[in-house]
Amino acid sequence: MTLVEIAALVFSVLALIVCLFQFALALGAPWGHLAMGGRWPGRMPVALRVGAVVQGGLMVLFARLVAGAGGLLAPVGPGWLIWAVVAITGLSTLMNNVTPSRPERLLWGPVTVVMFLCAVYVAVSA
């Protein structure tokens, strides 16, 4: 397995973990303190739970795009889409590391940093 394939695999596994977390939030898991700035301890409001479904779906898409660009699966879509993943993951990394929620920073800060670095590596290697 090459380094780019490993980076794609690490990104994809972490993205799927994030996806499962988002779907759990959508189903009412009491983890609001770990998402969206931690403003909603316990279950999140319905509108944000719908948003969690969208975010979870995006994570599946991102995992698929990175896996394709990294050579784990057949590539999908135009090649520039990997850079959209890099940009959005970079923004997510920034937001998760400056959130006022300390638990959210401690949990998702390192995860998003690793995801961002993997996405960048895959993008520059593709």
How would you explain this protein's 3D organization?
It is a single chain. With 126 residues, this protein is an all-alpha fold. It has one domain. It contains four helices and no strands.
Content of β-strand = under 5%
Fraction of helical residues: over 70%
Largest sheet descriptor: none
Number of helices: 4
Helix-strand pattern, N to C? HHHH
Strand elements, count: 0
The radius of gyration computed from the alpha-carbon positions, rounded to a whole number of angstroms, is 15 Å
Could you say which overall geometry the principal axes of the C-alpha atoms support?
elongated
Arithmetic mean of pLDDT: 96
Low-confidence stretches: none
**What's the number of structural domains?**
1
Instruction: Measure the end-to-end span.
Output: 15 Å
Structural class: mainly alpha
Transmembrane segments: 6-29, 50-74, 80-99, 106-124
Keywords: Membrane, Transmembrane, Transmembrane helix
Protein name: Integral membrane protein
How do you describe this structure in short?
It contains four helices and no strands. The protein is mainly α and 126 residues long.
Question: What key phrases describe this protein's structure?
Answer:
126 residues, mainly alpha
Topology:
Blueprint: H1 3-26, H2 46-69, H3 81-98, H4 102-125
